[in-house]
Design a protein that fits this description.
479 residues, Rossmann fold, 2 domains, globular, disordered N terminus, disordered C terminus
Length: 479
């Protein structure tokens, strides 16, 4: 198989962005690969609620203390600005833990102010029991038609911690040295919610949590998810704008999730423009179908890999390189800890390369993933600029999933980078094994117990595809 050189694939990418428009690329609502500012409507996934309890798991036991106070002030202003009828129908309960000993407290934020309900002992916010106890407290003391949970802290996506590198997922608690793994978040949700009676919204006000793996982990216990594929600024979500729109919070889970996207987009446009920020609202009931489509793509890619050897994998590596991604190629820490690419944009590149670098079967499978992704995404926003690869700047988009076909990232490890687009192929396996969570190590007990297990790795063929790529005897090691 002939392989496109980098320059040829770059011009293929330009053709993709500039010429194909809505037929293949992400489109803003109403057309064009851009954010045209038009409003977007949301189809409710559930009926409006007469009341709702919003649980904020606010872990500031780290370097985010300033932003924690700012965000709680935003919540207060938002509740005060909301219509009285909607504000009184929303129970806003916060479990706060700062970086001072014993400063944990449970707060209720209402138009009347911030009221401390309890002052528990020092909280380990990286312990799933702490999260489970908080959910239990809220459900017991503030029963409601619907519940939402927002996890506030640093985030590293689907990555599970292992003994070798001590990597993080979400809710890093500096005092205890503990973190919440995605499997632990799932266990806490599963203790209080079910597929028949799910949590309305699971929100991640943290970096890099908008991955297919994270969404799949939450799918059985929550109806919708709001998260960012890319890094978030320290200010995070605009809680004032969110809570002053209490009518949208009560209108349904999909409306609440879409509200997070819209308010984040507005804040970014006013305060942080052209930095590649992203935010997505996800219908978690569609994740099984998306995983099935990803399986089809993974199987085709793996078949081509086995048949064509190094040529095909080098073409796949070029496709990864031409895809919008959320880590810089030349920073080892990011390459190892958060190798996430935009799933929809990866499909765009594969589709555009059909018949040349990639087979028609790969193009068809990528189109199926785009369709499934479009069905799963309620609303998505992506800002321009901010791309870690200067040759592939981020393109702006905003709209429904069916119009933008963007909104979730996926793990796609790159080989170690040595500069000037030269890769140390001999160290691929080392990098891949360091990630732990996407290899067999993810199912091992180890010092972290079984908390690192990821359902997407267990159920999806994407892991098998990655395993094939990083086999030590793969011909790509001697391209």
């Amino acid at each position: 198989m002939s392989v496109k050189p980098f320059t040829a694939l770059f011009f293929l990418r330009l053709f993709l962005v500039l010429a194909l428009g809505c037929s293949v690329t992400a489109c803003g609502n109403g057309g064009g690969n851009h954010d045209d500012g038009n409003p977007v409507t949301t189809t409710p996934l559930d009926p409006a609620a007469s009341d709702m309890t919003v649980m904020i798991y606010l872990n500031a036991d780290n370097n985010l203390g300033y932003f924690a106070e700012e965000d709680m002030n935003e919540m207060l202003r938002g509740m005060q600005n909301a219509e009285s009828a909607t504000a009184s129908a929303i129970n806003l309960i916060v479990l706060y833990d700062g970086n001072s000993p014993g400063d944990g407290r449970i707060l209720r934020i209402s138009p009347a102010g911030r009221k401390t309900l309890e002052s528990p002992a020092e909280q380990n916010m990286g312990d799933p029991e702490t999260l489970s106890d908080f959910i239990d407290y809220c459900k017991t003391n503030y029963p409601a038609d619907r519940f939402a949970l927002i996890l506030w802290d640093h985030g590293d996506g689907a990555r599970a911690a292992d003994a070798e590198d001590g990597s993080r997922t979400i809710s890093s608690d500096a005092t205890s040295g503990d973190v919440l793994l995605m499997n632990e978040v799932q266990q806490a949700l599963g203790a209080h919610f079910s597929p028949a009676e799910p949590l309305g919204l699971i929100g991640f006000d943290a970096c890099l949590m908008g991955t297919a793996e994270v969404a799949y982990e939450m799918k059985d216990y929550a109806r919708t998810m709001a998260a960012s594929m890319n890094l978030e600024p320290g200010a995070g979500w605009d809680y004032e704008a969110i809570f002053e729109n209490g009518d949208q919070i009560l209108a349904g889970s999909s409306n609440f999730a879409a509200l997070v996207v819209d308010t984040y987009r507005n804040w970014v446009r006013d305060n942080d423009d052209n930095n590649g920020r992203t935010m997505s609202a996800i219908d978690l009931s569609r994740l099984d179908a998306l995983r099935f489509a990803v399986d089809g793509l993974a199987n085709v890619m793996r078949t081509n890999l086995v048949a064509s050897g190094a040529d095909h994998w080098y073409a796949a590596e070029l496709a990864r390189r031409m895809t919008e991604r959320y880590y810089p190629d030349n920073m080892t820490s990011y390459i190892e800890s958060s190798p996430y690419v935009d799933l929809g944009d990866l499909c765009n590149v594969l589709i555009a390369g059909a018949g040349d670098s990639f087979s028609d079967a790969a193009s068809s499978a990528a189109q199926a993933v785009r369709t499934a992704l479009g069905n799963a995404v309620i609303r998505a926003f992506g800002d321009s600029g901010g791309g870690f690869n200067a040759a592939i700047p981020f393109t702006a988009y905003y709209g429904t999933g069916a119009s933008v076909h963007r909104g979730l990232s996926i793990f796609f490890q790159q080989p170690p980078y040595t500069g000037d687009y030269v890769y140390d192929f001999a160290r691929w396996t080392e990098y891949y094994e360091d990630n732990g969570w996407y290899t067999g190590n993810v199912f091992s007990e180890g010092s972290m117990g079984n908390g690192g297990q990821l359902d997407f790795c267990r159920d999806s063929s994407w892991k098998t595809f990655m395993d094939s790529v990083f086999e030590s005897d793969h011909p790509a090691y001697n391209p």
